[in-house]
Amino acid sequence: MSSVSQSNRFEAWRFVVMYIVIALALGALLTRMISLQVIGQQEWLDLAVENYTKSISNPAARGIIYDRNGFILARNVASYNVLITPADLPDDDADIENIYREVSAITGVPDGLPLTEQSIEDAKIFSACAPGPGIAQMVFLGDSLAPYTPVKIICNINEDLARSIQEKTVDWPGVTLDVEPVRDYPTGSLTATLIGFLGPIPASLETELRAQGFVPNRDKIGYAGVEDSLQAILAGKNGQRVIQIDVAGKELRNIDPPIDPVAGNNVTLTIDTRLQAVAQASLLQEIDFWNKFYGKTRISSGVVIAMNPKTGEILSMVTYPTYENNRMARIIPSYYYQQLSTDPRNPLLNIAISAEFPPGSVFKLSTATGAINEGVVTKDQEIFAPGKLVICQKFSPTDTCPPRRVQEYVDHIVDERPEGFGIVRFTQCIAFSSNVCFYQLGGGFEDEIKEGLGISRLQQYAQALGYNRPSGIQLRGEENGL
Question: Could you give the CA distance from residue 470 to residue 481 in angstroms, rounded to a whole number?
Fold first, then answer.
């Protein structure tokens, strides 16, 4: 009897443990089910939807840039790429290899046959369209990742080659021709510093621009000139398609109604291209003349700006040296960019707005405006402008004038005409750009102009005319000036 009782007690304990384990297991299972189906329902539903949906961004056409007469300064032209979709290739390996060889013969891209593990590993370090890997390697890598996603074999081929390939795609299953817009600048270096160029989205702006619908490694943004400063106006808005895909990535259907891309706005500048060409030719001729006159290169850069003084419109803005922005249209060649960056003349810099130099005789207009406005001189007043002024630096009216305090202020023609311009009217001071005349207007001189404009009023009129602050031109990189 005692042995049976002991056995029954042992069996009851085992049942209790088993019940506890089962209860704990069911509790854990119930908790997990609640977590997945109630608390985290939306998160897992989103993951499930993401697993069979794909968003495709359709690029928007960039706006065209015109000059004031309707001449095109920047436009979009077709660029042709050759694509191969791995899933659409024939089933027979011999047919596939034959396609590779024929595409290679017409495009110049190596066929990559025979396909080896080492050649596949080597191809992984190259990006799309980069010279190096063969067709077989690029398609193999694409097939292993997304067989229904086209693989770019060669980019930016000319139109004649594109037409030849288009005719042959009937006999090449899986081979297609893709057309994408690239920027073209008909006026090239003539307006390069004004128009600028496009470049890939930098890593620092990737998050911000991705939120606006841009696609890194595909879309481009302005890097300089109007392309940069008017980026928001020219860019437009990309379209979008949300599609359902199968496990291999094949497109099945549209889930949501497609959103069409919105093209960027066109822009008309105040620039006159014909005047721009004349200004550039004149500037180059002037630089060449003075370098030959001095017998060496003394002038290596220059600027010509033509402005409508009534409206403030910039009719021409020529900067020399410049660069060829068409060379940046498809890709930015590293060697060319390096060459421009290391050039001591700074061809990438828009000297007209971004460089600071002493104003020279341009400042005379500020002095002239102040002098006529403050009554320092009248328009028809005659002023004697000798070749130089001899000034004694006195600290009091009774000071003597030792030689060390005597300072000569010469005119720019003193070497050719020591007598200077002689008797001139106020307007002739401006026409001749007489230094001596403006020395007198600015600081006064003996009894001829008893009181000049003076340093305080010189500053006031200079600031009123815009010195020491940016003009507000719609180009980035403008400096305040001196």
Answer: 7
